[in-house]
Specification:
Largest sheet: 6 strands, parallel
Number of strands: 6
Structural class: alpha/beta
Helix content: 40-55%
Shape: elongated
């Protein structure tokens, strides 16, 4: 097993690793498609929205606010600029509801975190809007398990290296756990750290990437409930 003998730090992603997130986006996308159904076929609306998000992520960053702006842009595009103000209002309302939605930790997360505490410092690394990520972290009730929390605008090898350097100069002693191969697994493997992929049933199109099957430092678990056993804490 490629886990380091004595990890210097164990890092976790937040959205869809510790709590539900993408499911709320999918529900809002379905609501958005219904609003624009008189102007565009539903299956085309999803494609147009993803295209807008792809264009805009470098301007607005990750998170709900950028998603709202991309929905508004898409609504303007598919209606040739004739989108009613009531539809814009519905989009804004949907976004506000997302920003206030209760945070629901995934099954077994609390128990898994409690089980591995003490092995190494546990830290949280999440990307997105600072205000919203801080709200979710506080609402989750999980913050007590973490030594530190970092909210970043992007998850790149350079960003990870800067965070991990606070704990060790040996990247082989780092473990990262997350649901996104693109953001949580590949950049960390590039540094020489161990990466544990815990898939979530839903995945945002912009996070799509193939798991590196056969990589000596890449592990895949079905659920975080399997994590304590991996660290010998079953």
């Amino acid at each position: 097993m490629p886990l380091p003998q004595s990890p210097a730090v164990i890092a976790f992603d937040a959205d869809d690793t510790l709590w539900h997130n993408e499911s709320f986006f999918k529900l809002t996308e379905a609501r958005f498609a219904e609003l624009l159904a008189p102007y565009c076929e539903k299956n085309r609306i999803a494609d147009r929205l993803v295209a807008a998000e792809r264009r805009n992520v470098h301007h607005y960053g990750y998170g709900i606010k950028g998603f709202i702006l991309s929905m508004i842009e898409t609504a303007i595009e598919v209606t040739d600029g004739k989108v009613p103000a009531t539809v814009i209002g519905e989009i804004l309302t949907a976004g506000q509801e997302m920003l206030g939605h209760p945070v629901e930790p995934l099954d077994g997360v609390r128990e898994a975190l409690a089980a591995i505490r003490g092995i190494a410092p546990l830290i949280l690394i999440t990307k997105g809007d600072l205000f919203d990520q801080e709200r979710k972290i506080a609402a989750s009730g999980l913050q007590k398990h973490f030594t530190a929390v970092d909210v970043v605008s992007e998850k790149s090898p350079e960003v990870y290296a800067r965070i991990f350097a606070r704990y060790t100069d040996d990247m082989s002693k780092v473990v990262m756990i997350g649901n996104s191969v693109r953001s949580d697994i590949l950049p960390v493997l590039e540094l020489g750290a161990t990466a544990i992929h815990v898939p979530y049933p839903l995945l945002w199109a912009l996070e799509a990437a193939d798991f590196p099957v056969g990589h000596p430092k890449a592990i895949q678990l079905k659920s975080l409930t399997d994590l304590p056993a991996l660290f010998g804490r079953a």
